[in-house]
Specification:
The chain is of the alpha+beta class. It has one domain: Lipoprotein localisation LolA/LolB/LppX (outer membrane lipoprotein receptor (LolB), chain A, Clam), CATH 2.50.20.10. The protein contains five helices and 13 strands. The protein has a 13-stranded antiparallel β-sheet, with helices on one face.
């Protein structure tokens, strides 16, 4: 009986390992399929997300994120009649920070452009990774706050690292951890994702919380309205031509 139980335990263990064995490419394929499929994802050319951003533990900002392929991104946050803007056109970035008394647009520093470049990719750095110059490595299963997850390491073309955690049942992303170097200092930031909803046939997270790794207080963004494939002019992302600031 002991021999049989021992063999049973070994077989069970092997089956469990086999069930969880997956390659990086297979994991990405499952994620894309879970989100609605590659055709559905690629059919989205522009994406506008409107909602509220909670910062500093309770300060509420009306926020909008605008994406446009191939790599445009713009964030707008409005509070007490003032609107901050951070924008990226795939090459250069700029910002307006009226909350700090800066009402003229300023060019974004080269190191800070990394974050915008990564943010502009709403497909995810792991989708079509090789075409983007990114490398993937599957790191096995890991517990994420009580949820079994598959962990994927993404080495970006610029040298930064991103670790992506996919729910083992739904294969949707529940957490990412970015590791980048800014002005010689290594920065680690994590984002948690939840409340997935369909937009034009593709699932996107409608709730996210971002902050430094290990931080107890994170900035929370909740999507209240989403629109895909609305007309968005490229000029929206360009540095304002009427201003000479930053030149």
């Amino acid at each position: 009986m002991r021999i049989r139980l021992g063999l049973f335990a070994v077989v069970t263990s092997l089956v469990a390992v086999s069930a969880h064995a997956i390659t990086a490419d297979e994991l990405v394929a499952k994620n894309v399929a879970a989100r609605g499929g590659m055709d559905s994802l690629q059919a989205i050319k522009t994406l506008r997300l409107e909602g509220k951003l909670i910062v500093d533990g309770g300060l509420e900002i009306a926020a909008t994120q605008i994406y446009k392929r191939p790599s445009y991104y713009r964030f707008e946050g409005t509070l007490q009649g003032m609107t901050m803007i951070q924008s990226y056109d795939g090459k250069d970035g700029w910002r307006i920070f009226p909350f700090q008394g800066r009402k003229d647009p300023e060019r974004t520093a080269a190191d800070d452009l990394k974050e915008f470049s990564e943010q502009s990719d709403f497909d995810g750095a792991w989708v079509n990774a090789s075409a983007k110059g990114n490398k993937l490595q599957y790191l096995g299963a890991e517990d994420v706050d009580g949820t079994d997850a598959h962990k994927l390491k993404v080495t970006l073309a610029n040298g930064d690292l991103e670790y992506v955690y996919f729910d083992s049942d739904q294969f949707l992303v529940i957490r990412t951890m970015q590791q980048r170097t800014v002005r010689g200092v290594e920065i680690q930031q994590e984002t948690e994702y939840s409340d997935y909803e369909k937009v034009n046939g593709t699932y996107f997270a409608f709730a996210s919380a971002s902050g430094s790794v290990g931080a107890t207080q994170k900035d929370k963004f909740t999507v209240e309205k989403a629109e895909a494939n609305a007309t968005v002019d490229d000029g929206l992302f360009a540095f304002p031509a009427a201003s000479g600031a930053g030149k």
